Amino acid sequence: MILLPEEDRKLLRKMEAEVSKETMSANFDELMQYPPLHSGSPEEEQAIQVLRKKLEEYGLEPKILRYEAYITDPKTAKLTVTAPQVMVVQTTPYRQAGSTTQEGFEAEVIYVPPDMIGYQECRGKIVLCEQKTSGDWMGLQGKLLLKLQEMGAVGLIVIEQDDFMPTVCHQRADFSVSGNPTSDNLHLIPKIPAILHVSHRDGTKLRKIAQLGGMRSHIISLSETRWKRLPLLVAEIKGRKEPDKFVLVNGHVDTPPYCLGATDNISGDTAILEIARILNKHKEKLRRSVRIAYWTGHEIGKYAGSTWYNDAFWHDLRYNCVASYNIDSPGVQGATTVREAPYSEVLDAVLESVKDATGITVEHYRWPTRAGDGSFWGTGLPHVSVTTSRPKETYDPHVNYSGGGWWWHTPYETHDKMDIDILVTDVKIELNLIWRLANCPVLPFNYIPYAERIIKILEGLQAKSEKISGLYNLYHLIDEAKELRVLSERLEIAAKKVAKEGDSTKVEELNRCLMWVGRNVNPVAHSDHDIANQVSMETFGAQPFPRISQIIDLAEMTLHQSPEFKFLYTKLIRERNLVDDGFYQANELIKATLEKI
User: Fold this and answer.
1) pLDDT recorded at residue 140
2) Which of 78, 122, 288, 312 falls between 20 and 30 A from 436, CA-CA?
3) What's this model's pTM, rounded to 2 decimal places?
4) Of the CATH numbers 3.30.70.120, 3.40.50.1460, 3.50.30.30, 3.40.50.11740, which one belongs to the domain with range 71-227?
């Protein structure tokens, strides 16, 4: 339910008119003097200081926090085919923990197709393989890299999957561990000495050579992995009626290696500055607070900044943060449409904000992803990210994101890839949504579409696993999700009534319920860890209900009496109990709240 007072709607129109193309152009140009911004570099520090000074100019009181981050900084890579003929192939290093010496090494190269990783012998060999796999949409990472390491591969040459722009290499990473590793998950970070990346065009040629046999290569892949002390910039615009509650508006400062980051994320940093400037002008009208955060350690720290912030301010985030609104890759050249809206309790507010700001009706939706510093799913926050997008005919389907531009995470992400008029549109969308989250007396949450999507997801998992339904099933969870939908419908009706009555006691009780339903559902829908730990990077957050998604693996096992079946079965029983409890707590809370209001 979204009920923004008329006074606030009028002020929103005024704020939209205050979005300054000239101010943003000047800020963007100034920030573009510093990339590439490797985390821990002097250039990153300079960019942070520029942002700090700008926020001070706009009347805010920013603070620079310092934290320790375990990050890998790729330095250089070189690939020379030495047999059956000598040729140098353009390459770029993965963001990886392993490193060769300055001299590198030479070894035999064999091609291993995606479905043979883990089966084809590769000890002592350089493996030529595909970035694209049949499983994870992020491609070669995580368990597959660890499997190749376990089997003794000394190096990897990874073929870029991008046939849309076959002559580029996108900077990619293994994404094995989210944020700083712990003693429990350090071993999950692959340490293969060399992982190189070649373009789709060059990789196609190398594949043909390797398949003929007798291929050898000399490779150098230098990277630096160590603890570094990084800056993190925060500021807060205090609300007047509910100052303890806040919307977290955030984006990352650092850019990918070798990349100027014009639209990932200098344009986003520029947008956040403009939002802060305008909101602070009208802070007397702000109901809840708006907290600004500029992350570091995003590109080469695997979300080191946002995960550290989640750890350091966990209690405040869990009990006071209304939503995390991440701003990444706005203002992209040619972005004439709007990206799919993410399913969450904030979906209705997203749709209304886009429509109100642009006139565009968003008709396509997606399951939220871990991308864009969505480091707060376990804590229970809704993660919101809304931005314009290039249309299908110019959208490179192999990128993750920069509005779908083919230049994502490449050296071609230059100044001209940002369109100031489109950035103005994005900022208007962002202002609309942030203003609704901060100023609607009743939080603009609606769990009906979220519950409907959850039901379809659980029914889909069950349909793919019907073979083992007599041993393990999700029937009870599906029933609870259906109850959540019914209760959400009743809650929506009650919310409209309470909003019109304006009873402050009932509004407070309703808002507590709206916030805490998500605190119970979001961790089990998106995280595979407890509420104080980070989501596994295995599927980059794209896998709904990761705790129980392995029901499909269980159903695909041949023998239900095997030890492997029993081990996974035991795990899934326990994980199902946690999901069950999340739904139960949410449903009981709605029932209790409906009785009170």
Assistant:
1) 83
2) 312
3) 0.96
4) 3.50.30.30
